[in-house]
Amino acid sequence: MEEPRRILVVKLGALGNIVLSMGPFANIRRHHPTAHITLLTTAPYADWTAKAPYFDTVWIDDRPDWWNVPGWLRLRRRLIGGHFDRVYDLQTSSRSSRYFQLWPRRKRPEWSGIARGCSFPDSDPDRDRLYDIDRQYGQLRQAGIEEHEPIDLSWLHGNIARFELPRDFALLAPGSAPHRLAKRWPVGNYTKLAAALVARGLTPVIVGGIVERPLAKTILTGAPGAIDLTRRTSFGDLASLGRAARVAIGNDTGPMHLFSAVECPSIVLFSHDSDPALCAPCGPSVEILQRPHLDQLGLSTVLDAVAKLARTEALATG
User: Fold this and answer.
1) Tell me, what's the pLDDT at 3?
2) I want to staple 96 with a disulfide (CB 3.0 to 4.6 A). Which of 31, 91, 163, 224 is the partner?
3) Which structural domains are found in the chain, ordered by start?
């Protein structure tokens, strides 16, 4: 089989899933060192994945609604016009599998994924019960890629000097997707945690997007020594914050994947709403605390984990 010269990798989101795909991305690049590799992703992740050493080009998928015929036709033209020899569909969703059907039958590229009729199907019957990274490695193995690269975010940096943070700080990620509120430890508990951290000499630094801003305001009310960085950080900033922090505590949400991947000691809180066996953040120092409902998780348990994991020396902030 001729070595593919033009490759498309499909990974649309979300943040945690993309972080967990960094090892598989590296596998593909190592296996195809001279190929032109394009990543198809969504707008929030385009800029920072473009800085990764694995892709030559990053395309934004506008994810047209099913009724948006012009949008689907534009996507079809772009995909066919890419003249791809092979596609690695790491999203493996119903949407991304539908993209396989956009090519004329006789012009379809080699395809690794779960689309019916594709050339490299992931035929593992247990794929939906595997840890995210292991599932992707298994899929790639069935397409002939045996490498097993680790997650490496050494290329991802931000300028956190502008925040003028104290040396000793802890990161808090109190949010989650707005439609997944069961993934959130109560904000009152985060407020108590922040106050306890201040008493122990650690400045709580709250991160998140626009939906986390009200949570940050509540926490600041009960812990005036905390710092609110919601809506102020890029993905590069989050990586650098993770390298510099003593510890990170948060729900099962995207920033915790970034923190753990840059080796920040991370305490991740899980409810019944997600399964850490399938999607836990990956890193050398990760503590999973799970309860069926997160209001059952006591503050003392989290503080014990902080005492156990927090590193005593801050690392470089680059």
Assistant:
1) 85
2) 91
3) 6-142 (3.40.50.2000), 161-309 (3.40.50.2000)
